[in-house]
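#structure-requests
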Amino acid sequence: MPTLDDLPTLANATPTGDDLIPLYDLTADGSSKVRKVSLNQINGLSSSDVATSVAGTITVSSRLTLITSGTTSTVNLPLPSGALRDIIIMNGGSGSATATSATANIKTSAATTAATTAAILTATTARLLSDGTFWYRTH
């Protein structure tokens, strides 16, 4: 079974945001408790994680989507089972934006059931986290 001691040590390396860092998971099941996490998950966003868009139909393809102008936006969310599991949408436009999903899988704190849309008002931010099945709006 591999352990953290088995992993190579990098000296004088310049890591990038997508580099993977090993960690030891005490709660893991199975033969290996060594897992990996990207540096971005530890340190935050890199420039490739940010997409700037104007109003209209926007498809989320990065961790942070900035709406910079326009009056009305429809923001299409990726599948909750995809690679993006933590997304932020900042509405800096002059109108409202609506996060939209193909199925009713958006859950907010104010609703008891999942919906296909969630409003993102002007000058507000929506952060959505996925468990692989649903998008949970945390703010």
